[in-house]
Write a structure and sequence with these properties.
Low-confidence stretches: none
Strand content: under 5%
Shape: globular
Number of helices: 2
Mean pLDDT: 56
Helix content: 55-70%
Structural class: mainly alpha
Protein name: Phosphohistidine phosphatase SixA
Distance between the termini: 17 Å
Order of helices and strands: HH
Radius of gyration: 7 Å
Number of strands: 0
């Protein structure tokens, strides 16, 4: 998993806000 996916899975909005997995789109 990428750092974006890890942050997303961990629920860290700070990472998700600028870097999120393409699946979210």
């Amino acid at each position: 998993a990428t750092i974006a996916q890890i942050g997303w899975q961990d629920g860290k909005g700070e990472i998700m806000s600028y870097s999120y997995p393409p699946e979210m789109l």
